[in-house]
């Protein structure tokens, strides 16, 4: 077992389904396998959902298949979700777990009052820097290998807001400029900014994370703090 930094390049250790599943069941969420060979988790109040959808191959972000989808709805009986967030394999499971804990703790999961500066301030507090050209929408890690950015919502990302040209948060890691993405995440326009901030803050955390395997594309960019 190795303890490595930075977290955003550490990968998921091939255990993204298991780690997040453990987090959800630990919070008391109920799980059902579906006919699409996915695993659906629903919070006790029925307002929050998480689904392991890698086997269904729903769509790709940055050339990578989406693995987890989070959602929230205003009423347990509502057929429509208010917002959705999508994460590919390879995303550090610590960041996704911290987002889920924040989502579970919210009394109202489908609305928020914080502005987009909340996200940028969260990563800025961890040493990330704002893009000179887009200081109010984009920030990067000091090594320029990961980015969080507020931009146009990708076409297949679903949100309850029907208006065109919606703006949503995106995040991704690119170990070396021009190489394939390590992971990608996309938040629909109605995801509360403070929830995105919970994910981004954990992503940018300097605290080392344990890994048995690390992504080959990031080996030269990772610091091995210690072995246990």
From TrEMBL:
It comes from the Bacteria. Pfam families: SPDY. Residues 43-107, 159-209 form the DUF317 domain. This is DUF317 domain-containing protein. It comes from Streptomyces phaeoluteigriseus. The lineage of its organism: Bacteria, Bacillati, Actinomycetota, Actinomycetes, Kitasatosporales.
